[in-house]
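Let's inspect one such protein example.
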Amino acid sequence: MLKALLLVIAVSADSLAAAIGLGSAKIKIPLVSALVISIISTASLSVSVLFADAIELFLPPAVCRWVSFALLLLLGLYSLLNDTIKKAIKQRRRKKES
């Protein structure tokens, strides 16, 4: 139950941050689009909680922590390197053009 509560808090905080960002940019989302986003978010959250409960039966918590750590690390490295590679490509194109 605590895991589900923490997941809900994390998703809610992420949604709040996105809403603040959209609001500050004065971007308005139509009601139907907001409802679709809400339904998809709720479904994703539900599937995540159910999947976590199912995985917990087969894998020890330590393995789950390491897998989670590895996934987050790889996502962070991908994001960091992706941006760095794009900048390097843009710089090379600028040098070739001049």
